Each structure stands twice: as C-alpha cells, then as structure tokens.
Amino acid sequence: MPQVDLKNVRPYGDTLDDGRVQLGFSLPIRYGPEAKEAARQLVIKMGLENVDVVSAHDLGGLFTYFVVYGRCIHSVDVTSLRVPRVQVEQMDFFRINDLVRDKLGRKITVVAACTGSDAHTVGIDAIINMKGYAGEYGLERYPWFRAHNLGAQVPNETLVAKAIDTGADAVLVSQVVTQKNVHIANMTRLVDLLEAEGIRDDVILVAGGPRITHELALELGYDAGFGPGTLPSHVAAYIAQEMIRKEHRTSPDLGEER
Amino acid sequence: MPQVDLKNVRPYGDTLDDGRVQLGFSLPIRYGPEAKEAARQLVIKMGLENVDVVSAHDLGGLFTYFVVYGRCIHSVDVTSLRVPRVQVEQMDFFRINDLVRDKLGRKITVVAACTGSDAHTVGIDAIINMKGYAGEYGLERYPWFRAHNLGAQVPNETLVAKAIDTGADAVLVSQVVTQKNVHIANMTRLVDLLEAEGIRDDVILVAGGPRITHELALELGYDAGFGPGTLPSHVAAYIAQEMIRKEHRTSPDLGEER
Amino acid sequence: MKLDLDISKIDKCRECASDIADRIMEQVRNVTTTTCERAVLRLLGVDGVDRAGVPLPNVVVDMAHQAGLLSDGIATYMARAAVSAGLSLQQVAEKVACRQLDLADLGSASCDCDRSAVSGAVAASLGRIRENVAKRREYLSRLDSGTEPLIYVIVATGNIHEDVEQAQSAAKAGADIIAVIRSTAQSLLDYVPYGATTEGYGGTFATQENFRIMRRGLDSVSAETGRYIRLVNYCSGLCMPEIAAMGALERLDMMLNDSMYGILFRDINMKRTFADQYFSRMINAYAGIIINTGEDNYLTTADAYEEAHTVLASQFINEALAHRSGLPDSQIGLGHAFEINPEMKDGFLCEVAQAQMARDIFPNAPLKYMPPTKYMTGDIFRGYLLNGMFNLAGVMTGQSIQLLGMLTEAIHTPHVHDRYLAIKNAKYVFGSARHLGEDVIFRPDGIIQRRAAQVLADTARMLEYVRDQGLMDAMGEGIFAGIARTPDGGRGLDGVVARSERYWNPFEEAMSAQLGLATSSNPSRR
Amino acid sequence: MKLDLDISKIDKCRECASDIADRIMEQVRNVTTTTCERAVLRLLGVDGVDRAGVPLPNVVVDMAHQAGLLSDGIATYMARAAVSAGLSLQQVAEKVACRQLDLADLGSASCDCDRSAVSGAVAASLGRIRENVAKRREYLSRLDSGTEPLIYVIVATGNIHEDVEQAQSAAKAGADIIAVIRSTAQSLLDYVPYGATTEGYGGTFATQENFRIMRRGLDSVSAETGRYIRLVNYCSGLCMPEIAAMGALERLDMMLNDSMYGILFRDINMKRTFADQYFSRMINAYAGIIINTGEDNYLTTADAYEEAHTVLASQFINEALAHRSGLPDSQIGLGHAFEINPEMKDGFLCEVAQAQMARDIFPNAPLKYMPPTKYMTGDIFRGYLLNGMFNLAGVMTGQSIQLLGMLTEAIHTPHVHDRYLAIKNAKYVFGSARHLGEDVIFRPDGIIQRRAAQVLADTARMLEYVRDQGLMDAMGEGIFAGIARTPDGGRGLDGVVARSERYWNPFEEAMSAQLGLATSSNPSRR
Ligand code: B12
Ligand code: B12
Ligand SMILES: Cc1ncc(COP(=O)(O)O)c(C=O)c1O
Ligand SMILES: Cc1ncc(COP(=O)(O)O)c(C=O)c1O
Question: pLDDT tier at C336 (50, 70, 90 boundaries)?
Fold first, then answer.
C-alpha cells in the first residue's frame, strides 16, 4: 500500500484516498425522485463526488430519510493538528495517595455535583463514589482525598457555597444533558459565580461529561475537562499533580524538588 | 411547525432547519485524540457546524472509524430541480398487450442480456422470465412480446448480433457490477457497436440495474434507464408506448389517432 | 408458566407486598397534598393562569394552604364560596386570584348543602371522563388496535407542533403508541405549565393544551390509517394527580406513573409521593388509563444483573399499591428493562429469563419493556443491533408494550428517522420471530430457568426484609437503585397536609365508590 | 439431534446421494482435463510465464493437447523429456515454451524408468504439502484456534497489498478466517494469472504469489495476536485443480470448492467440472484443507423457502462426492445460507430449522453458514440487524464457520470499517447468546420441527428422482437454482480428454494411496 500523505489525509473505504464517506439525514420534503436528487445535490455541496443515494425512505409523507455514499474531495493536514490534552502523568490509586502524602502532606478536599437541571449523576458518581467505576475505586475511597458529592440538579450557588464552606481545593462539575447547549450556559455561569466570590483561582475547576472535551473546558474557563471513559484515577492524578504544581508556583523555594 | 422554505431546504433532525447530518467514515490514521480532531476538521470542511465525533474505533492500528454528527450549513433549492423521468403511462399486463395489438398490430421483439463480465442475471430475469418478479409476469409471458434472454456475461458483440438476427425492436441491457465504473465503459461500448452496425436508431435501447438511473442512461446515449424496484410492466409499457411514438414519427399520417 | 417457577415463592412475594402496601396506605389515608387539591380544582373545571402566569389551581390552593384550610379539602371551600357568592367555580378561582375573595373568610361550618353546589361540576367532569372511556373503547373496537408487543416510541422535540409531525410520521410507519417526553426537570415544578408550548429541553412540557393538540393530531392519523394510536404522558413528579386529571380529561391512554420513582429519582418526599400516587392512580383507574411503572430506572444506576431482584420486588409493590387505587391488572403496566451489560456472556439468556419471569408472574399485566440505554454508545450500528435483540426478547417472552430503543440513545433525543428506523427494526423482528417463544421450551434447570429461580428467591428475601422494616425505613437504606431517602427528606413535604375530620374530596369519594374501593375520604369513616 | 428427524429418511438420502456420486465417478475416472494436467505440472514445480505472459503450465499442456498427448497424462512426457534431454522439469517446460523442445517428438514408449525421473519432484512436492499440514497443526495447537462459529470475513480490494492491510485489521478485530475474493470472472479464465496483482474488479486475482503474500501477512498477525488466522481462496472455475495445488503449496486453510457450482453458475461444462472437482478435492484432502461448498448460491436465484430442499439435496451430493476424493467429514464444510425473505412471518424460525437440520444431519462437518445477501438493501441499519439475526441463528444452531454479512452488501465490496462493524456484531451476539441453543428445546411438532421434517421429506423425494434420472440429465431440467445445463453445453468441454490405457498422474496415484482410496489413475487397474 502506498504511504499515507499526512498533509492530505482523506477518508478511506478500501483504497488509499478513495475518499468514501457515508451520510444519513432527512429532508423535510416528500419522497420521490426529486427528493433523491435534492439529497444528491446537498451532498455535492458538501464537497462529495460520485454521490450515490443508496436508500431513501418515506417518513410518512412530509419527510424523506436518505443513506448516501460519496467520495469526499476534502482532506486534512494531520501534521498541523494540535489537540490540547490534560497534562497529567498516569498513576494508580497507591501512587496518587503516596504522592499527596509525600509532596503535599495534607488531604485534598473536592466538592462535586451534577449542576443545573441535570440529574445524570451516574458519571460523577463513577468518579466520586466509594464503589467507583470499571473496577477502580472512586475518590471517596482515596485516603488522601476528602470528597463531597452533592448529587443531582444542584444549583451553581449551592455548589459554590459548599466549596467555600469546605475550603475545597477542587470543584468538579458534571454536565450530561447538552441539548440546545444548556450545559455551556450553565458551566459559564459557574465560572462567573466563582469569580464573583473571588475564589476562582483558589480552586482547581474541573468539568466532565460525555460531550465535554478538555478543549471545550479550557474555552469555558475551566482548568480541565474529562470526557467519556474517564476513570477515577485519571481525575485524582490530575488534581494531585495540579495541586503540587500550584503549591510550587506559590512557594518557589520548593521548586527544586521536582 | 413553520413552513418549509422550498428554496432553502436543509436537513431535518427534530426541528426545522436544524441541519442534522450523520456521517460515517474511516481515516488512514492511528486512533487517538488527534484522529478525532482530524475527523472533526474534515467534517467542518464539508460545511458542517457543531461537529460531534460521537464514536471512534481503532481498526487495528492503521485506521480509525468515526461516527460524526453535525449541522449542515448548505441548503438546496428544491424548486429548481429537474429530474428526467422515463415518459410512460403506467399500464398493466392486459392493457399493454391490448395496446400493442390495437396500435401496433404486431409482436414486439426484445433481446436482453447481462453484458460484459457481469453475471448478475437476477435483475434482467425479473424483467424477462416467465415467472417474473414481485407478483408480476415477465415479458416472456406477454403474448404481444417476443423476448430473448441471452443470460449472463454476454459480450456486447453477441448481443448486437442477436439483435440484428432477430430484427429486435428493443435491446435490454442489465449492468449490476459498478465497481470502478466498469458498467459505464461497457455500456458506452454497446452504443458504439450499435452505431457502427448502423442500427442504433432502429432499436429502443434500455439499460437497467441497481445503480442505473434514467438520467445516467440518457447521458450514456440510451433511450431509458430503470433502477431498483422496476417491474416488468414498467418496462413493457415504456417499450410499447415508445414503439408507438416511433411509428407515428415515421408515418405521420397516423398522427391523429393519439 | 414457561419457567416452572416456585408458586409458593410467588405467593410469598405477593403477601409481603400486600402487607407493605397496607402500611403505606395507613399513612396515605390520613393526608392530602397541595397537588391532590389542585387536581380536585382542575377536575372541577378550574383552569387558566393569573396575570403572573401562575395556574389558578396553584393560586387558590396556595392561599388555602397558607390559611390552613387544606386539611378540610379545597372542595368544601369552593362549594361554600360558590354558594355564598353566587359564582361559578371558575369565577370563584378568578376572584380568589385577584384577591377579591378570601376562602378563609367564609366561616367554618361545613354542611351538605354546600357540597351540592359542586355536585354538578363533579358529575360533568366524571361524565366527560366516562365519555372518553367510551370513545376509546369505541375506537379500539372499530379500528385496528395493534398486535402485542405494541410499538411505543417517544417524541421529544420541545415543540408540541413539531412533536405532532414526528408523532404522525411515526404512527404512519407503524407506531401504536406515542409518548411525549417531558421537558427536563418538569417533574420538579410544583405546578403544571399552561397552554401550548414550543420550547423545552430534552422534551416538551406536559400541559393540558399540549395533551389536547397531540390527541387531535393522533386521532387524525387514526382516522387516516385505521389504527388506533395511543397517547402517553408522564404522571410523575410534584403534580402527579393534576396530570392524571388532565390526562383523564383529554383521553390519554397511558401514563408513566410509579409509586416510588419520584422519591428515588427526583428526590421528592416520600409522604408526598405516596399520597399523590394514590389519588393519581385512582383517577387513572377511573379513566381506563394504563399506568406504566418505572422499574427500568433502577437499572440506570444499579447493575441489571446484580440488582435484578429489586426490579421484581418493585413490580410486586407497584402492583399491590395499584390495586389499592382500584387499578385492575389489565391497567397495571409494570415496567422492566433490557439493561444487562452486552459484554456479559449469556447476557441475552438472562434478559430472556427476566422478561419471561415478569410475564409468568404477572400474566394479566400489560407489561412495558424498556430498551437498552445505559450501554448504548455513539456506535449507532451496535445500538441498532442491541435494540434488535431487545425486540427479540420482547416478542419471545410475550411483552405487551415495547418501548423501542433508539440507535442514537447515547447522542440525542430521537431524530425523525431514528424513530422510523426503530419501528422497522421492531416490525422485522416481531414478524420474523413471531412464534419463537411458543416454539421453544426452556430446558428444565437450564441457564434461563435457574436464573429466574434465583432472582425470584432473592426477591422473596428482599420483600420479607422490607415488610419487616417497613418500606419507608427500608428506603432509607438505599435498597432500590442504591439510592437512600428518608421520610422527611426531599422536595414537597411542605405540600403534605393531615386530613381533618371534615376532609372532603368529592372525586375520591365518587371514584372510590365506582371502583369498588372502601372510601377513605374521611378517615373517620374507615 | 435437536429436531427429532426421521433417521430412515436421512439414510435414504445418503443412499441416493451415494448412488448418484458413483455414477458420476464412472465418468470421472475415464477422463482427465487440461487443468488437471496443468495442476500436475504445477505440483511438479513448473512455474512462471512465457514472454507473452502465458503461464508455462498452459503453454506446455496446450501443446501436448494439440499433439494429442494428454490422454496419457502430461507427467509421462515430462519425465521422458527430462530423462532424454537431461533437463530439470522447469527447464523442459521453458524449452517447450520457446519451441526448442517438442514433447510429441520423444517417441511413444512409456517405461517405468522414465517415471522415476519425476519421482524426486513428486516426493518434494508432497513433502512440502505435508510440511504445511504439520505447520498448520503446530500453529493450531500452539495458538488460539478460535471458538465456533469461527468468524470468516472477506477482503476484496483488487489490490493484494491493500487486501493484506484490511485482512490484518479484520484479524485484529477478531476475525478467525480471511477469504480473498477473486476478481470478477476469474473463474472463466482457463489459466491462473501470475505474480502479485494490484488491479481487480470486485476482488483480487487468485495467483500463487498473492496466496504467498497474504499467507505471510496473516502469519504475522497470528504471531502478534496469538490466534491462528486461517486463509481461504476460491478453488472454482476452469482451474480448480491448479488452484488446489497452489493452495496446498502455500498453506491455505480452506477453499471454496463445490462439485456443481461452476456448472450452474459459471456455465462450465459438467464433464469438465466433475473431473476437475474430483482431482482438486483430492489435493485439498491431502493438504488438510477444508472445502466450502456453495449451496448458498442457489438461493440467490431461487427462493430460500420454496427451494430449501435443493440446498439439503446438494449437501448430500457434495458430501458423497467429497468422500470419493478422500475428504473426511471434518474437511467437508457444507454450505447453506440465511436467505429467507425477511418479510416472511416466522421466517427466522424457518432459518433456524434449516440451520439446525444441517447440523443434525452432518454432525461432523465444519458447516459454513452464509449471510443474507439477496434481501439486503441500501438500508445499512436494517442490514446490520439482519446480520445480527443471522449471527444468532448461527450460534444457536452450532454452525462452525460463520461468513459474516456486511451491512453494505447491497452497495459495495466491504470497506475497512464494514468488516470491523460486522465482527463486533458477531462477537456481541455470539457472546450474549452463547448457550441459547443448548438452553432451549424445540417444541415437538412445533413450527421449527415441522419445517425441518418437511424439507427433509422433499429432499428425499428429490434425491430419489435425481438418482433415477442420473445427475447429469436431471441438471438438464433445472433442478438446482432453476438453472438448466446439458452434458455437452458450457465452457471447457474442449479441455476434457479421455484417459488412455497408459494414463498416468503420479499425484493422483500417490495421494489416492495415502488417502486410502482405490487408485483410478489407470482405468484398467480398477
Ligand atoms: C442513565 C440516564 C438517565 C437516568 C439518569 C439517572 C442518574 N441518576 O444519573 C434518568 C432515567 C433519570 C435519565 C433522565 C433523563 N435523561 Co437521560 N440518559 C441516561 C443514559 C441512558 C445514560 C447516562 C449514563 O449514566 N452514562 C454512564 C456514565 C458513566 O457516563 P458519563 O455520564 O459520560 O460519565 C463518564 C464521563 O463522561 C466522565 N464524567 C461525567 N461526569 C463527570 C464529571 C467530572 C468532574 C469528571 C472528571 C468526569 C465526568 O466520567 C464518567 C465515567 O467515565 C443516557 C444515554 C446514554 N447511553 O448515554 C441518557 C441521556 C443522557 N439522557 C437524556 C435525556 C434527554 C434525559 C431527560 C432529559 C429525558 C426527559 N426529558 O425526561 C431526563 C431528565 C434528567 C435530567 N433532569 O437531567 C439524553 C441527553 C440528550 C442530550 N444530548 O443532551 C440522553 C443522551 C438520552 C437521549 N438520547 O435522549 N437519564
Ligand atoms: C445475487 C448476487 C450474486 C449472484 C448472482 C447470481 C445471478 N445469477 O444473478 C452471485 C453469487 C453469482 C454473485 C457473484 C458476484 N457478485 Co454479486 N451480488 C448478488 C446480490 C446479493 C443480489 C443481486 C440481486 O440479485 N438483486 C436482486 C435483483 C432483482 O435486483 P437488481 O439487479 O437491482 O434488478 C432490479 C432493477 O435493478 C432492475 N433491473 C436490473 N437489470 C435490469 C435490466 C433492464 C433492461 C431493466 C429494464 C431493469 C433492470 O429491475 C430489477 C427488478 O426490479 C448483490 C447484493 C445485493 N443485495 O444487491 C451482490 C453484488 C451485486 N455482487 C457483487 C459482486 C462484487 C459480485 C462478484 C463480482 C464477487 C466476486 N468477486 O466473486 C461476483 C461476480 C459475478 C459476476 N461476474 O458478475 C457486488 C457488486 C459491487 C458493486 N457495487 O459493483 C454486490 C453489490 C455485493 C457486494 N456488496 O459486494 N452475486
Ligand atoms: C415513572 C416515571 N416518571 C417519570 C419519568 C421521567 O422523568 P421526569 O421525572 O424527568 O419527567 C420516568 C422516566 O423514565 C419514569 O419512569
Ligand atoms: C463454490 C464457489 N466458488 C466460487 C465462487 C465465486 O465466484 P467466481 O466463480 O466468480 O469466482 C463462489 C461464490 O459464492 C462459490 O460458492
């Protein structure tokens, strides 16, 4: 097989650069040859060639659903992509706790919640609860962490109050429901609140959920974002390491230790 | 629901003009955050916004498969679409035969074949064979048709010879295998051959197959093209009506009868 | 019975559930709630909102509550006001709302002649509900009523008008039942929004006008297709009885209505919920509405294999409580779900065991089978397949109502074609494997039979424990879905009011009588 | 036996099939074919192409054929030429190709000392094949050999190097078996293309070099994953025995190899095919290669429900003929397919009946189960689901080899992710329903049992008829797939040559002996 040109990566069906892409969508128009042609034209506008409408279904008169294949003329320069990643060295339960004990010498306090109207607690529970997730313990079981899980549909105000109350080192927010971007508005409001209270810089602010990426979290003014498949140890390691980085920043005499 | 703007029809997920489109494709790059970002960038180039890479799979190291959703910014003007259709009035077995008897007064001869290297005879058999297809008889059972089905992998030369031999009124070609556009080349060659033999205008030239549209057939110099779901009566009605149209054209004195 | 289950264990479970329900009912009969009283107002025909947009039933009940009148039941005061001021009930409510009338000012004596002032409204309301029952029966006898498992799909655009389009599209593709999902967190609103709505998150607000719009939309497809299309909404949250009343008036056919869902999943106070579910179910019973219980929800937080017995235990409790509201078995749509980890070896066999067990134990219940959700991912093809296996389990085990899974479950509320694809999936599987369940016998003491026996045994143990502890206390231990709730925790306790000796609820009274229940309107009469 | 089939009917079918095969063998033993002789040359080590690109085996055999020498067997002349000219066999072939040597000029006497001139080459070739058998056995004992149903997927890019990438990707995702589909119409070529190829339509040319490249590619994934990945190609068409020889030399593990496929679907002459399949199967038997028969093809033109008995009848005939080539049951991968119209009510039950019947009747055969293709459409989701139900039928009925369906069957030869998705589909279904088949009993006289009994009865009737007519004449009536063929019609009859008294095929002789078959090299010795 010829070498992939990383400056011009194209979709691959069964031959390099064949550009094969499958699409599925509905149009709000009546089923028929014209509808198929409309689908084809639309896909051509997306920059596909050799467009085949391989299936078209009448969805009760007003809509038509299509499955379409075509050859995409676009390509991506993969060499120029920079995807921000959470800066963290992977560690297990024991190493994380040892690190906190040795380098920080005190317990880390975190408060966590599923905020706004969101009641999807399974994700944050996976990270925080004793029983944990996918065979890993949650933060509640980490001896060097003190974790407060506030549960579902917690108003941002309550969360901030709890953070102040417990002198939290880290605030963890879970946002699952993203329809019409409610999560964005809600997440932004939390940052505003923390700033209004003057504690934004005192805490590590972490977001998570199935549609959260580190990049998005950074954009919204968070320190880190965690998406699907996150394990408790990922989050714990990040918080521990970030805490230590922070300490060093504020007490530069410890700088050499690293 | 607000009215659909037929000059600007957009994909529909659950709200008018939400533009939702699903895509599936592979890129020949290693699975990981960069791969996901590459997929996202590619889809953005196609003119989609709010792009979500909802799933990414490692296909053994060298490829990654993605399922992506996004909002398409393109729209189609449905009012301006013109899709050529086979000009035919639908009729059933009995009406078609009556028509041929009454208006033509002689049997129509057709020769049919699955040409080139193509061995997919099911489609042409559906149209021609006695037993027919989807509850309809095939052309062999039409009393006013004389049908010769040459079967699979018939060289274009053989088909043309047979057409001359039988004095065929119509030549029917089935092309199923379309990989790398073999069917196009093969279909074009048949037209050239018929022209070389000087009989192109003496026959109604019809193509069919799962990837054949009337439009494509016209482009390639055929008189009509039939795609998936074609029934024997569609083809018979078309040939009968076209024969009568032809007769009228050549003997204008019969023009009034229509 | 396909599973050769131990009948004595089943009897034991029913006995425990019955005891559990009786203890809950002791509490329930002593209280009313703000939403119960608002439901009474709605049934009396009070509708509309005040200038601030607050529904009149809320305005009136809140004032009565503040004035400490609720323990007698709102009907008494409405009757008295109507009589004394010579107004219609709606006018009374309007006057109360603009502070032109104060229910507390009407003197305290309650007499039967006052009561007769509402009897016309009561009769009208009950008549309208009975008419709906008759109309439904007529539709079902005249039109195609569908073949079980009935195909149930959701619409959730947030806009009732788009919902109608989507529902009609789905009905034409073969859906038998349309559920309009509610906007996120409506269950936590202590009022029912008003009018037609076009904005919602993850769902569309449940309002009486929206019910009406969708009912009309579906009736028109019924006429077009010759198939009766059933309508569903959510009778859950802080307004259970009000929504039941609205559904009864607008001829909904099914209602999500669970005895414990709100407590566990919406942190609604348990005293509140138990009281609300009691009256709301009575309304549903009277209106011929099938309830759908919510056992599937347990499995979104708990493991479907490990905690299978909690589903069965909850089904027994839901059944026992439903009976106490006058619901016949044929209206008790017990819920369960296909939520075992797809990676689990022989997981499909365990799903079949669970579903067949529900069928064997509740032979007359219109069981509602919920699709995989938890292990759905962005891989829409895998999702489509999981839904197919779910459909197979459904048709194999004789489920009544199949809530179709969406291939995009992990991504978004359904797109118009997602639903279409789901219906095609179900139609194929139901047709192609229609008699598979009848054609196979589960091997005696095989994997399926043993699994079912084990779950039943665990259930019996659990229900005995709950009976001994009392349900309210047991819930404090997180026995369901690992969620612990206390009797005085949660939302809505402030809306719970002890019934006085004079308490009167004309609908509870009339419905109880017609449903053949011992009336509990007045605790002294028990 | 899960289906309680009538054993006497099964015995009756085997008896008929045996008689049918015996009559075919009478003809087969009297002839050789150009490709059989080319296979002998290939096994003798003759390889390469002439300046016009024609493979040397073709050049030599064509000349011998024109000279009327083939009836004695090409080996005799090669031996004589090598002895008389003092050349290696390859040199002989090369000299013949550039007309420096004429096999017809060597005089006519045949003596055993000539024969000994090739015995070294024969031994070397047989040794290499036995080594391959040993190496395969060693791999299978050392590495994970997979769990049935084994996962079989195809690659078909047209380019052998892309094929390797795709195959490796599939193997890593869990495929146990990789088949390289051949380029459209290769079966009609009366020669085997040469060298590595990178252009093909709907598939990749079967060449010895391509076999080697793919074998190496798969061995490397085997090493990496610890699972033995099996390799398959097509031993069909006008070059059956040659491809068998190539496969034996390059350690293929399976070969599509049917006794009647070429006749029916490629219009190859039946005398030619019966002779070719006989020798090709002997080579496969000797090389430990599992054959896959092609009954699935009937259902692409005939209706899977109506014509189910033709599949079973063909399986009996394929089995009987395979035994006559020395193939043990464990190498006879009889084919069948999941091709009933998905719209058919209880169609899935009929599929299960058919698949279970094959399992019950051929308990030791590595049955190969083919996926839905005919009713696949551009609806890729539906396709994915159909494939899932097919996988379920496969695991339920204990199939050995599951050729996975592709969701894009109606659209294109598989894309790299189509295969991946198909493997995920199978892994889920196989795992989740692993013991479903064992856990259920088919209801006596239920739909499944009755369907199987009916198909078996129809099959017995059909086979009796075929025995009475003779297979060759019966095929003239279109009994399989509705396709009629005559004994002298079709391609390749000109390559069929009567064996003379002196006919000699050293490989047939040696293999027959080692496989315990009565040698038929020389008809006079029978
Ligand atoms: C379970 C579930 C529910 C349960 C929730 C129970 C509970 N206690 O959580 C119930 C049944 C109550 C429910 C209700 C609703 N749901 Co819901 N639900 C789901 C479901 C099936 C699974 C979610 C889940 O538990 N995933 C498993 C966890 C482990 O994954 P996760 O959340 O991604 O978490 C991981 C990472 O993201 C990360 N993470 C998550 N949070 C955090 C936080 C931090 C700080 C960190 C570091 C990491 C982290 O780590 C976790 C472990 O790896 C999904 C569909 C699906 N399959 O995804 C729909 C889904 C999320 N729900 C949806 C909707 C719409 C609703 C409702 C609004 C529907 C309605 N109208 O009634 C309601 C309202 C609830 C509300 N007010 O929020 C939609 C959301 C659509 C969208 N794109 O926004 C989905 C996608 C279903 C759908 N297709 O419609 N739901
Ligand atoms: C059956 C089948 C076969 C059978 C064919 C048997 C036979 N006698 O026809 C067998 C097993 C032999 C076969 C072999 C191959 N096949 Co094939 N086959 C199919 C399959 C499963 C179904 C096709 C079919 O019968 N459809 C049913 C008929 C009724 O539909 P239809 O052809 O569209 O016909 C209708 C209309 O199009 C129209 N019509 C058709 N012709 C005509 C002609 C006229 C004049 C008119 C008016 C109308 C008309 O009317 C018909 C009725 O409505 C398809 C996959 C699929 N599900 O589509 C693959 C498929 C077509 N095959 C394919 C391939 C690659 C092959 C092979 C090349 C594979 C190989 N390398 O060995 C071989 C080679 C065969 C060859 N030389 O052509 C590919 C083609 C890929 C592509 N896009 O080009 C497909 C799509 C499968 C795949 N995904 O790989 N195949
Ligand atoms: C009984 C019941 N009520 C209500 C709901 C819906 O949730 P919400 O409370 O957000 O309306 C569910 C969800 O599955 C349910 O099972
Ligand atoms: C036995 C057998 N040989 C060969 C083929 C492939 O076809 P072709 O003859 O085009 O190589 C098939 C296809 O299914 C088959 O079953």
Answer: very high
